Amino acid sequence: MIGRLNGKLAIKKAPQILIDCQGVGYEVDVSMSTFYQLPSEGEMVSLWTHLLIKDDQHALIGFYTDQERSLFRQLIKISGVGPKMALTILSGISEPDFVLCVQSSDVTTLTRLPGVGKKTAERLIMEMKDKLETLSGDSLSAELGNTPAAVHHSAVDEAIEALIALGYKPADASKMIKSAAQGADSSSSENLIKLALQNAIH
C-alpha cells in the first residue's frame, strides 16, 4: 500500500498531477480542495495517498491532509458513492461545510453537487451522521485558501476540462466556467474552477 508520496511536483493540471519521486513519476488524482493547496510546478510536495485497485487499473488518489483522506475513505464505503463521486464531493464542498450539511440534514446543498441526486444525498446524510465524531472538531481541515496560480494560455479550456473530469456534463462545465470568468481573473484556471464550484453550491 502506498500511503504517502514525497517528491517534486512535475506536472500540475487539474484534476491530475504527477509527482517525481527520485526519478519515478506517479500520476495522482486529486480533489480540487487539495489542488488549491499545492505549490507551483517544480517545487517539493508531500501528499497522503489512497491506492485504488480495480480489475483493469490501479490508481492513486492524493490528499493534502490525512483528514481529507479519512473522509474520502468513509464516502466510498457508502452505497452508490464511488471514488469519482467522492472526489467530486470533496472538490465541490469543504470538509466543514460537508459536516454542516450532514448535521443539519441539508439535502438541497448536497444535490447541487454533480451526480448527487436526492436519494444519494439522503443516503450520505443518514450514513455519515454516525461517523462525524471521527471527522469533526480539530481534525477537520480549515477553510481552503488560494495558492499562487500559474498563468496558462487556455485557462478557460483547462478549467472546463477539469470540471468534465470531475463529473460535470460538457455543456454545464462550459456554462459554469464562462459565468465564473465574467468579471474575474480568467488567466488562472485554478481561480476559474474554484469560483465555478463555489457558485454551484450557493
Query: How is the CATH topology of the largest domain named?
Result: DNA polymerase, domain 1
The total tally of domains equals 3
Summarize the main sheet: 5 strands, mixed, barrel
Shape: globular
| Order of strands across the main sheet | 1-2-3-5-4
* Number of continuous helical runs: 9
Strand tally: 5
CATH architect. name of the largest domain: Orthogonal Bundle
CATH class of the largest domain: Mainly Alpha
Radius of gyration: 16 Å
Please indicate the percent range of residues in DSSP E strands (runs of 2 or more): 15-25%
Which blocks of ≥5 consecutive residues have pLDDT under 50? 137-153
**Which structural class fits the helix and strand makeup?**
alpha+beta
Mean pLDDT: 80
Helical proportion? 40-55%
Can you give keywords for this protein?
202 residues; alpha+beta; OB fold (Dihydrolipoamide Acetyltransferase, E2P); DNA polymerase, domain 1; Helicase, Ruva Protein, domain 3; 3 domains; 5-stranded mixed barrel; 9 helices; 5 strands
Written description of the protein model:
With 202 residues, the protein is α+β, with helices and mostly antiparallel strands. The chain folds into 3 domains: 60 residues, OB fold (Dihydrolipoamide Acetyltransferase, E2P); 73 residues, 5' to 3' exonuclease, C-terminal subdomain (DNA polymerase, domain 1, Orthogonal Bundle); 46 residues, Helicase, Ruva Protein, domain 3 (Orthogonal Bundle). It has 9 helices and 5 strands. It has a 5-stranded mixed β-barrel with strand order 1-2-3-5-4. Strand 4 and strand 5 form a beta hairpin. The longest helix is centred in the C-terminal third of the chain and has 12 residues. The chain starts with a strand and ends with a helix. About 8% of the residues have low confidence.
